[in-house]
Design brief:
Helix content: 55-70%
Shape: elongated
Structural class: alpha+beta
Number of domains: 2
Largest sheet: 6 strands, mixed, barrel
Number of helices: 16
Strand content: 15-25%
Strand order of the largest sheet: 5-6-11-8-10-9
Length: 414
């Protein structure tokens, strides 16, 4: 194609300005991919941590009465219950009949695990110190299906905990504060109760509020300590697809008559923070691509002025307005394609390099290096934004070039 050949010659003839425009696109795409990979990576890691500690769904308080409940009859004549407002409803703490709820959940589609958890508070004492704790009574086998507790144990073992009815798994911050060792005895007090426990293991989730407050006991031991032989527990539920948690939570709340909260609702604040960070970084880095587009516009605008005589000659040889316009559009396409390819390759290398950098974070999750998320959509969005800017920057000078009248230019040069 003659237009493409001429466009390639024009690009080569102006190596320096074209190279500068190309570098702008390359670095713009690279930085866009890199920042999105980092923010999405930390968000994904945060979500994995939340699902690994508190599960996808939490089933807790029972609705105390039917105030605020809407009865709706579907087309098949069946009645279902829709709760208009959680805030306006009254609850009773915990699940009074956990066996019935567990049985109702056993055949529910999409559920991969259900764990009964009895929660309470106490004070843990060692020889040298004491610490207020939030105790969770669990069946270890069930709880391993809804959490990553086995992965979080850094000292001791879950096997040791499983075989010791008076065993306890302690958060790493509590463990350090009490100055104890695996196998040591500690006392747990609360109200009029005081029991002796053996340290079976230490876990570190990376979530500061969990590691400095939480301990795990056997469910029977927790019931005895809290003097709650029946009921009062909550359920943590894991799902095949955690993304469907809000819809499943609404369905469960309808037929269980208990409050069901999805992880998205529990962590809405942090999810909004990550969303804002992704959008902010995308807007900031896109300015590099915008500046590259302005550079291309400047280069092509000057080229149109410098190449007026050449354009007039082409028009007098039979080139149409669309032919002349396509020459400049093809130049933009050449620069754009090279920029997308090189920018994507540099983005891959930069993302991998950043993922190897050490970075110790403890607070809302635990990691010792930068976390990145490999997503092809990052590259697609970068290419799309680049295409928009380059297309606009190229089309305006191309349209101006197509409007040049050959007769007028030839007369001016004679």
């Amino acid at each position: 194609m003659l237009s493409l050949e001429l466009a390639l010659r024009y690009v080569i003839s102006r190596k320096r300005p074209m190279a500068m425009s190309l570098l702008g696109i390359v670095f713009g795409i690279c930085f866009f991919v890199l920042t999105q990979a980092q923010t999405a990576g930390f968000e994904a890691f945060f979500i994995r941590t939340i699902l690994g500690t508190n599960s996808a769904l939490l089933i807790s308080d029972r609705f105390q009465n039917s105030d605020g409940v809407v009865h709706e009859i579907d087309e098949n004549g069946r009645t279902r219950f829709l709760f208009n407002s959680r805030e306006g409803s009254r609850y009773r703490d915990g699940i009074d009949h956990p066996e019935m709820v567990h049985s109702a959940l056993s055949d529910y589609p999409g559920i991969t695990g259900v764990s009964e958890v009895l929660r309470g508070h106490g004070v843990m004492h060692s020889i040298s110190n004491k610490s207020s704790v939030e105790l969770h009574g669990i069946h270890l086998h069930d709880h391993q299906k809804v959490s990553d507790i086995g992965k979080y144990v850094s000292q001791g073992s879950t096997n040791r905990f499983a075989t010791d009815p008076m065993g306890v798994l302690i958060g790493s911050r509590i463990f350090l504060k009490l100055g104890i060792q695996i196998g040591d005895r500690v006392s747990l007090s609360g109200g009029n109760e005081n029991i002796q426990l053996r340290v079976s293991g230490v876990f570190e989730s990376g979530v500061n509020e969990i590691d400095k407050n939480r301990i795990y006991l056997h469910l029977k031991t927790a019931r005895s300590f809290l003097n709650r032989p029946f009921g009062g527990a909550v359920f943590q539920v894991s799902l095949e697809d955690p993304g469907n948690a809000p819809a499943i939570a609404d369905q469960m709340q309808s037929f269980l008559n208990h409050r069901v909260v999805s992880w998205q609702e529990r962590e809405q604040v942090w999810l909004d923070v990550f969303k804002a960070l992704r959008l902010s970084s995308a807007i900031t880095v896109s300015t590099i691509l915008l500046l590259s587009g302005l550079g291309i516009f400047n280069v092509f605008a000057i080229m149109v002025i410098e190449k007026k005589r050449d354009i007039a000659i082409l028009r007098s040889m039979g080139f149409t307005q669309s032919d002349v316009s396509s020459i400049f559009l093809w130049q933009g396409v050449i620069v754009l394609i090279l920029g997308i390819i090189l920018g994507s390759l540099l983005g891959i290398l930069s993302t991998y390099g950043v993922s190897q950098l050490p970075l110790r974070i403890r607070g809302i999750f635990s990691t010792d290096s930068f976390v990145v998320h490999w997503d092809p959509w990052h590259y697609i969005w970068a290419a799309l934004i680049s295409t928009i800017f380059v297309t606009v920057a190229t089309w305006i000078p191309a349209r101006r070039a197509s409007k040049i009248e050959p007769a007028k230019i030839i007369r001016e040069t004679n």
